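Protocol step 4 of 6: structure prediction from sequence.
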Amino acid sequence: MGLGDLTRENVLRAMEEHDDLGEEAFFLRYGFEPARGLSLIHEERRYELGAIAGAAHRYALGRPLPSEVLTGECASVTRVLAQLGFEVRRSRTTALTSPAPRLLISPSYGSAESRQHWKDTLDRTVPFTDERYGRHLTESQRRQLMTLHPEGRSRFWGARPRHDDKMAAVTTGDVVLFTGDNHVRAIGEVGVIFRNQEFADALWPPKQGGESWRTVYSLRQFQTTELPYTVLNSLLGYKSNFKYPGQMVFSDEKAAAGINGLLITTRTALEEAGALPVPGAVRMMQVEQQHTHTVIVEQPARRLLFDRVEAELVSAYRDSLTEVRVERFATEAGICDLYVDGPEGRELIEAKSRVDRPHVRAALAQLLDYARHAPAPIDRLAALFPAPLASKTLGLLHHYGIDSVHRTAEGVFERLPAPESRRRFIRDLIGVGSH
């Protein structure tokens, strides 16, 4: 697409054109429509992210990028503009039901060759700046890798040329399930993706007369697990004995079913929601003693990509519900576990894998934070646990008007509701009626 070729001057010229024409004429010229998602902020003015990127491309390479080309590339646009020193800000809560990141199924442990590849580039990180690997990277590929992996190391995976069509739309923030031996063996988040056969051959030297890989992607996050295919098959609507024979790429409803069903939370989704700083973003701080500026690069804190216990608990509870709509939403506070809308009203639920006091306090804090950003007024708050709470920790939740829900048997849950007076108290406290 050429986003990596944009310069700060290109973007500033696009902003200037926007200001000269006015927003309506600017959108008409470049074929964009007003959006309420991510915005580009410059000198206290707000610009539509995609429209500015599309127009800036004209100043960089002589032709604009149309809106349909940029669709689904929000993470890439955000990263490039942040790397150029611009502020990107989210202006509203975002549902995680549609559109969703893509979901890749990547068989990766079935043959001796793939197991060796796993050992070489998944079990350990690769120092891609070393001469052995770095000499095969283009300047743009090196720059993008350093933005997401500033330590100069990353895990890598890829695909052979026969999968080029499937992999063409894959981008930063998509989710990969690494499969083998009837299990999902690991979960990853796509970082930088590009085609470079020489770099691929340096990572995974082909056997004599063997086939090279061509598509390569780094992994922003990577976490091993042992998740039976039966769990994934249930989420994706396959028969229980389905085996995932080859590379697959899902989008839309099926991707959302897998990602939300497993309660996967990517860094990219958190960045787009404003809960984490975008890699490469800088902020200028006044150093009063020297009367100069210094650039501070903010590194995101580690976030858990996948918690199998919590995901299994949420999935079981969700299956026990009837006549309700269940979603997740992302905000600058993070990503909620469950947002339930049904006959008894709207409910926000946070799940925890343990019942000790630190986990109860964490659920309490997250619920209060997420509730302020909910897409619509919340009627109830609840924390979901695998077992009953002790009386003191239950009292803590009830004091703040939060119900406790715990599992009593397979597929069976019990709710211990907070007093209605305390529910009203918390609704008033968080101001849910101010949306």
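Step 5 (inspection) to follow. The chain is about 35% helix and 25% strand.
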